Amino acid sequence: xxxxxxxxxxxxxxxxxxxxxxxxxxxxxxxxxxxxxxxxxxxxxxxxxxxxxxxxxxxxxxxxxxxxxxxxxxxxxxxxxxxxxxxxxxxxxxxxxxxxxxxxxxxxxxxxxxxxxxxxxxxxxxxxxxxxxxxxxxxxxxxxxxxxxxxxxxxxxxxxxxxxxxxxxxxxxxxxxxxxxxxxxxxxxxxxxxxxxxxxxxxxxxxxxxxxxxxxxxxxxxxxxxxxxxxxxxxxxxxxxxxxxxxxxxxxxxxxxxxxxxxxxxxxxxxxxxxxxxxxxxxxxxxxxxxxxxxxxxxxxxxxxxxxxxxxxxxxxxxxxxxxxxxxxxxxxxxxxxxxxxxxxxxxxxxxxxxxxxxxxxxxxxxxxxxxxxxxxxxxxxxxxxxxxxxxxxxxxxxxxxxxxxxxxxx
Amino acid sequence: xxxxxxxxxxxxxxxxxxxxxxxxxxxxxxxxxxxxxxxxxxxxxxxxxxxxxxxxxxxxxxxxxxxxxxxxxxxxxxxxxxxxxxxxxxxxxxxxxxxxxxxxxxxxxxxxxxxxxxxxxxxxxxxxxxxxxxxxxxxxxxxxxxxxxxxxxxxxxxxxxxxxxxxxxxxxxxxxxxxxxxxxxxxxxxxxxxxxxxxxxxxxxxxxxxxxxxxxxxxxxxxxxxxxx
Lengths: 411, 229
What we know:
The complex is a heterodimer of chains A (411) and B (229). Chain A has helices at residues 3-55, 117-164, 182-231, 238-268, 280-290, 292-298, 316-332, 380-390, and strands at residues 67-71, 79-87, 90-103, 106-115, 276-279, 301-305, 311-314, 339-344, 348-353, 394-399, 403-408. By secondary structure, chain A is an alpha+beta fold. Chain A has three domains: 3-139, no CATH class; 206-268; 276-408, 2-Layer Sandwich (Heat Shock Protein 90), CATH 3.30.565.10. Chain B is of the alpha/beta class. Chain B folds into two domains: 6-124, Response regulator (Rossmann fold); 131-226, Winged helix-like DNA-binding domain superfamily/Winged helix DNA-binding domain (Arc Repressor Mutant, subunit A), CATH 1.10.10.10. Chain B is built from eight helices and 14 strands. In chain B, the strands form four sheets. Chain B has a five-stranded parallel sheet, with helices on both faces. In chain B, strand 8 and strand 9 (136-139) form a beta hairpin. In chain B, helix 7 packs across helix 8. The longest helix of chain B is centred in the C-terminal third of the chain and has 17 residues, at 193-209. Chain B starts with 5 loop residues before the first strand and ends with a strand. At the A-B interface, helix 3, helix 4, helix 6 and helix 7 of A face helix 1, helix 6 and helix 7 of B.
């Protein structure tokens, strides 16, 4: 529900409730007023009647359908009361004044009746008219309000749609308009502040990951250099040398893990949001070229059957990383004189290599899951998987006589 | 012509710089160390260097700006960026600005040595230059090795390993060191120590078969040492 509808509806329902009570109150108060008016008229009629008796020969000639005259022994105070008469089968409410008058030494009780039907009708008419007027008044107000609020909030909706398209890596694309409404300007001001804060934080985080890389890699470089220098000393025994080698080996693993984790963090932080159109065949050929010497040394035959028009919209660095890792993997786990087949069937890219089956427990794409080959980090394929996830590429792996990675590009 | 072995090390990490300077000094280079862009500019103005090792993250700014300055002064001066920032754009930017090589921290000092040597070869001697080590003659540009004039057929990996050995004679090169060097040589390929062991075994076999003495000595199974004297 839109804000304007919401406020409009609560406005309408509140005023409806208010007018319901108001109408009831008005009904009764108008009735009381008219009843007072009626009573005053009855008193006036009583005065008129008494005045008339002075000039009348016979009091009974003054009687009519609203004035009853009756001889009486009593002589009480006059009193007002309501009564109901049946007229033509309908109950009609009357107001009557009951008083006593001495005419020619005879005491009479006189009743003057006034129908309340007219006043009742009047009350209803007033109430209905009032409600109708009020309702149409409120409806008009409601619609006018809707229109004016919508006009006033136009800037707000524009801002909202801009925020929807907000890209954290390109904060400069967002610009807010000023409105003539203070609250909206205030909101826009806050949005502006927020967006600059967000982009500042984002940049800081980017810088932070880079700095962390820097701050960790430098001490690692020092450890490596020191251990290597120590290894050159004369008179080291076998055990000492092995320990130094372990230090260097562990340090280089640590450095590689650090680099890989930084890459994963950067991917998560949308560091590589920029996309370009990448020709897959071109990237594949480039990566094979990188490793030509290794491929030749191992006697591996490479067969690529990929349409040169096959393009994907990806960040170019991530596309490079993706295919570099997959091809590196295919060479590393291959046998001598083996084969790498890369084939695209219009929907999926198949990367097969003829390496022997590996004893991998668990999901091959999970971080730190690796074959019994302890030198592998078990992180390359998790990077591959993360990149695929980012671009909604469904990657699967199976082993049927050869390793087979299938990248499904259908979205 | 300036001194071929004059190196300027621009690195703000004192401990690392000390190691680098000591190591390069041991390898007959003349080293000057500065820790900031300001001092680097001063040194570059007052002295001639044929190689600059440049760390990018310096206390007074990004070292990238120095590359242009160095290359303008002397195009034959080699620039090797040494940085912990693996950010690809930095790497590309550095190389585009005229840097000749890029070494990511952590690195092994012998690898640095190999890169400096390769750079000096590339920038100062076009084409035919050779490295002699005992009976071996290695010609890097042609990827050829001769034992007493007899040509030996080596695979690319074996050749690169041999080149690394002859660039770092009389030094223990650990298996990790060799694996790291080879991995960085082949786009972060990730050579395992076992694979390196296999390649070296083949290399030694081929060299000895061609009549070379056993120059590559195994050091306690931890690494290897090339001794040709």
